[in-house]
Amino acid sequence: MGRHAPKRGTTTHLAVPRKRLTGGARRVETGHGLPVSLAPAVQAAVVYQEVEAAIRR
Question: Are 31 and 19 in contact, with CB atoms under 8 Å apart?
Fold first, then answer.
C-alpha cells in the first residue's frame, strides 16, 4: 500500500511494508517488500489514522 497526502503544500508518502522476520522471542527483520496488500477495512483505518495525525500536526 502506498499513499500520499498533501500537508501544507507538501506531499507526504506513507508506505506499509510486508516484513519478513525470524521466529522466536528475539525476532530479527530479514527483509521487507512493497507493495503490500491490506484488507480494505485495514487500509481505510490506516489512511484515516494518518490523515488525522497530519491534521493535528
Answer: yes
